[in-house]
Amino acid sequence: VIPLTLAPLGFIGGGVMAEAIVARLVGSGLYAPELITVSDPSVERLQLLEQAYGVSTTPRNQELVARVSHLVLAIKPQVLNAIAPEVSALAQPPALVISILAGTPLARLESLFPKSPVIRAMPNTPATVGVGMTVIALGSQVGEQERGIAEAIFQCVGEVLCLEESYLDAVTGLSGSGPAFVAVAVEALADAGVSVGLPRAVALKLATQTVRGTAELIHQGELHPALLKDRVASPGGTTIAGLVALEQANFRHALIAAVQAAYHRSRALAQLPEA
Ligand SMILES: NC(=O)c1ccc[n+]([C@@H]2O[C@H](COP(=O)([O-])OP(=O)(O)OC[C@H]3O[C@@H](n4cnc5c(N)ncnc54)[C@H](OP(=O)(O)O)[C@@H]3O)[C@@H](O)[C@H]2O)c1
Questions:
Q1: Which residue out of 16, 37, 57 has the highest number of ligand 1 atoms within 8 Å of its CB and is therefore the one to mutate?
Q2: Of 112, 163, 173, 253, which one is least surrounded by beta carbons within 10 A?
Q3: Of the candidates 187, 12, 179, the residue with the CA atom closest to the CA atom of residue 171
Q4: Of 36, 78, 86, 72, residue with least CA distance to 57
Q5: Cβ contacts of residue 250 below 8 Å, gap of 6+?
Q6: CB of 130 shorter than 6 A to ligand 1
């Protein structure tokens, strides 16, 4: 991979999501480790990131901001108010601010960082294993170059879509919360396996690999899920018997209701006053 940009990149917050992104930015060769700096209050955390990925670190956000031109905010949303003045204090504002903070609108980010183009990104947990789904929404000052940088960064941890910000509550309901819904499905399949006599470890392996393989089949084959289901269900067979049981239990409706509930909760949280 040819490095996309030689612009130094900084992460404020060196937690789970920042590590997932840093690991793959460096691992893929998109960024040389010398170009990346991470700040975090925990010195142990910083030592770990330095040793594992060869990146630079500092416990002081202001020092980080002075060193980099592109910035990723990877702190918890509650910390945003505290770090914003540290970013804005410098004469030279970052040439790009990317926020992965859940539920923090572009309007708020743009008012906190008025001199920088701002991109809001919503990654999901599978990003930590490189199979994430990230949706980005562009602030008003963002051009093609900034968009390209954000897309390249998140392509390192999976797939990226650029959408209007108005979709982000729906995105939160589906790809943001979805890993938890799928995890419950895997757990239930494993329980089911145990209920019909499989040892627990075997049942969990079968359940996990079945969900993984089915998603891959739909993804790689660009196959409509209904077509895959029809191919597996032979007349009078075992699969159609199971499908009938799923319909009786309102399985589809349960998933639809879960995504709708997460979407409504995301909208409600956005209405709450800032902490
Ligand atoms: N994990 C996900 O799947 C996911 C998905 C979508 C969006 N997000 C968003 O990503 C953001 C980070 O999530 P995460 O899971 O990576 O959280 P996390 O593991 O808690 O990481 C946040 C890091 O920021 C550090 N921090 C706290 N105060 C700071 C300060 N003033 N300056 C610099 N760093 C500071 C924390 O240190 P301490 O622990 O010592 O306080 C922690 O290491 C959140 O806003 C979340 O909404 C996460």
A1: 16
A2: 253
A3: 179
A4: 36
A5: none
A6: no
The answer to whether residues 182 and 210 touch, using CB atoms and an 8 Å cutoff, is no
Q: Where are the beta strands (DSSP E) in 96-205?
A: 96-99, 118-122, 132-138, 158-162
Residue 20 has pLDDT above 70, yes or no: yes
3-state secondary structure of 57: strand
* Nearest residue to 124 via CA among 52, 183, 188, 79: 183
Order of strands, edge to edge, in the sheet holding 56-58?
56-58, 36-39, 9-12, 70-73, 96-99, 118-122, 132-138, 158-162
Residue nearest to atom 19 of ligand 1 (CA): 15
Give pLDDT tens digits for 120-153.
999 999 998 999 999 999 999 999 999 999 999 9
pTM strictly above 0.85: yes
| Dihedral of alpha carbons 1, 51, 93, 163, sign | positive
Q: Is the CB of 10 under 6 A from ligand 1?
A: no
Find out whether the beta carbon of 103 lies less than 6 Å from any atom of ligand 1: no
Atom of ligand 1 nearest to the CA of 20: 16
Q: DSSP secondary-structure letter at 78? A: G
Task: In whole angstroms, give the CA distance from residue 243 to residue 229.
Answer: 9
How far is the C-alpha of 271 from the C-alpha of 63, rounded, in Å? 34
Average pLDDT (186-210) is 98
